[in-house]
């Protein structure tokens, strides 16, 4: 209606959308074979060609034996990723810690910076306040920046600097680790996604068209922390609000706030945020390169935090605190993770393709079940 109003007024029926999907053959069967085997042992193999059938797993949400096996699959995947990190980066991570993963293109609107502000807050909480953060955390980033996107490259640099400070500090690194896995690609995603406990989908509301990474993580039993943006909205509808961590401004609230947004107002009323921003400005994470992150600081303070990191900082921290608390009850956490797997049938690309065939192309879609397992 806004981009091509004349075209829309002539043929409104030509404008419609179909929610993206991902193939369970790659994103469960191929990349997480032990989970695929567990599912098949429980409900048979027909789910591989008809993911809607995966809802039958809901029958096991209160089955301690099944949840223990489901949890063991996740733990084995985490150990495999920890071994990979050790082998490729010579960095030791605790596979019993929360694996919190943000793997996607590096962009300001995707808010890797908000994730970093929270990590810096946790670091300062442990280091300066001598407060235990509850559940140990391993924050894992991966993604690439466009060649000419200097701010995105600087965010990658900040991730590396924060990782160095955190990971080399013996007062902190038993509770907190930060990892950046380079050269993000499908084969790396196939290692990361099955091992994730938490899926970071924290774009500024209204900026994400849809996304599919969030679907892959949910299928593999990661709980989403996210804004009401893109496919997060539909994941919420399908998995239920008790099985996802939604925080922050909505699309309408973002639009209403932008004209009068003053990031300094949020800074002044939140001492945690104030301390983090002071640490960024004072080169706490770049002592050998003074001023290197000055442009990031300036982008947050003036002209004014275009992607509303400050506005969403407090609710994001609150959601992360809820995650730390909930993770300490492993059986309940596993039941909620299982509900993510069981309720993601809608996000199969088979459904997307069938919708295109039925409603746009006017052809008959056929799915042939071959020897997939």
TrEMBL record:
A GO molecular function held by the record: glycogen phosphorylase activity
Assigned keywords, A-Z: Allosteric enzyme, Carbohydrate metabolism, Glycosyltransferase, Pyridoxal phosphate, Transferase
EC number(s) given by UniProt: 2.4.1.1
GO cellular component entries: cytoplasm
Cofactor field: pyridoxal 5'-phosphate
Gene Ontology biological process: glycogen catabolic process
Lineage: superkingdom: Bacteria
The keyword Transferase appears for this protein: yes
Pfam family, one: Phosphorylase
UniProt KW Amino-acid biosynthesis keyword: no
Similarity field: Belongs to the glycogen phosphorylase family.
Its job: Phosphorylase is an important allosteric enzyme in carbohydrate metabolism. Enzymes from different sources differ in their regulatory mechanisms and in their natural substrates. However, all known phosphorylases share catalytic and structural properties. Allosteric enzyme that catalyzes the rate-limiting step in glycogen catabolism, the phosphorolytic cleavage of glycogen to produce glucose-1-phosphate, and plays a central role in maintaining cellular and organismal glucose homeostasis.
The name this protein goes by in its record: Alpha-1,4 glucan phosphorylase
Species annotation: Desulfotignum balticum
